[in-house]
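tool_log.txt
---
The assistant was asked to compare two proteins side by side. It first ran the structure predictor on the initial sequence, then on the second. Raw inputs and outputs are pasted verbatim so the downstream comparison step can read them without reformatting.
(1)
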Amino acid sequence: MALAVKQTHDGVQRWQVAAAGLVIASLVVALAIVAGGSAARALNGIGALLWVGSGVILALSLPRPERYPLAWAAAAIGGGLLGAVIRPSTFAVAVAGFAIAGATVVLLGGDRTGGWALMVPAIYLPVHLVIGIGRAILRGSEMRVAPPPTAALLPFSMVMAALLAGVLMAYVVKSRN
């Protein structure tokens, strides 16, 4: 399988390209929030596809951490809880929630790259979308396709909070060994 190869031809690790895709996806969603109207619906769809696609590639290409099952469990729980229960609606809640969850994944998994922290926002969006679709079905109404009226930089802040906390925690993990 081509995606299982860990490095591209120029030495950049494939997971790093997927991580950049996740950051770009968060900026596309932010642009959709700013744009509004039909442009927002199109941009939001593009951003969601890029987000989910980057998350899948990230999951397939991240270096295996010391405690692989624990990393997956922490990422699934963190992304799932943030998507289903906590529902970050403010900048401070988003930054704190994603930073704590990202750092926890790296620490529990023994990840030395910090990249595993990005599995939290990668899992968050599909959970968020499934809940939105489920609510629309239960209410018998249309699914909201326009972005929520939140701060435009909220999606970017969620991804960056997880990434920065993960990189800092990876430094701690490396220094312990």
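(2)
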Amino acid sequence: MRHRFAWLSGIAVTALLFAAAPAEAAPPDASDYGDSGFGMDISAYGLINFGWHTSLGAGAQFAYPIVPAGFVRNPRFRDALHIEGGLDFGYFFWSYGGHDYHMAMMNPVGGVRWAIYVLERLAPFACAKLGAAFPVSHDDYGRYHTELYALGTVGVIWDLSDKISLRAEVGYQYVGGHTDVWRIGVLFRI
């Protein structure tokens, strides 16, 4: 039930963002982001996971464009493929068998992000990443170990200016169980 609510909420927020945007937007100017399209950026965000384990945390990621001019050849749309990597820190907590458990984890993560500006200041994106979850501290449950995981997310980048954007994303990962992941933060172009 919580998974369905989380996914439906993410779809509703994305639909509202598209509905709030003007129907006709001026063609975007790719020169705002460098001669060849998108440039490098750094994102900082808060995160929350729902599912088998619930967690709260924060993270940061660095992105470098590997295909800065993108794949779409329509001048009304700018797109780019970035390689993106960073570090998340999360505090997980859950109840099982009448006991409460908790652990803190550091999660290095890396992969690709493809974004396309559909409006002058709004770019939906999709990410596919791999990571590792390292327990930093935990209770006495005794079964914690380093775990590799896959992560897929979709989100939006909403430009506030040429250098600063809001970034929101929702996705699915497996770290000690299946969980939804929600991130909201700020993206800085460098």
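---
observation on (2): The helical segments are 2-20. The first strand starts at residue 41 and ends at 51.
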